[in-house]
Amino acid sequence: MKKLQFKISINAPKAKVYDSMLGISTKSDYEEWTSLFNPTSAYEGSWDKGSKILFTGVDSKGQKGGMVSKIAANIPNQFVSIQHYGILKEDQEVTEGPEVEKWANGFENYTFEENNGVTNVTVDLDAAEDLLDYMNQTYPKALDKLKEICER
Fold first, then answer.
1. Residue 107's beta-bridge partner residues?
2. Helix or strand holding residue 26 (H, E)
């Protein structure tokens, strides 16, 4: 896996950015910014530290899939760490095998820092080699969508 980093400045307080990014008050905020990855993007579970969370979507064949993860850390309005440890394939959680090995123990971390009403979001993530181009193209667009949501 390779480490990637993406940053964006959003003209909104960090509490609002955190809330919108995770879809805490309005789950559709999360679904809207992550729709850049998959139009049916959603999550099932809790953002509480130690909780299991499923990041889901429907593929072109109509099959539900996604990532099986846990929240390694969540300091509200400051930092969230997601540890990916499996995949969801046709509604089955798969936590071992070749498809999982490229993601196993990969992290996706969100850091929120506010200065004079502007929140800087930094995303640090581990990406599988075969997804580097996709992530480098898609993540900045998704963060632009998050910015649009937060600045409405």
1. 83
2. none
